[in-house]
Specification:
Length: about 90
Amino acid sequence: MTVLIYDTAWQPNNALLERLHKVTGWYILNTYEEPGVGFEGFFFCQNNSCRDYRYIYHPDCEICGKRQHPNFVDYDDDDRLGCRHCLLGKPQ
Ligand SMILES: [Zn+2]
């Protein structure tokens, strides 16, 4: 098993990983997140087939650390991104 961790601009490099799978036959799993544009997902290749599952980005609440749906977070007066529970001072 080989694990690679890296940053890329704009898009996950799934086309390159698909080509790598076709050349080597390796099982490939690429998990990615793009908070700026607001998506995340995973891409995997196995048995000469690749699939990409992309969905809306879920940011981490900067107070409790839990991942939340983007409609469930907002910035407080100190510019911290917090979930509704933390911003309202209510335990989850
Ligand atoms: Zn929270």
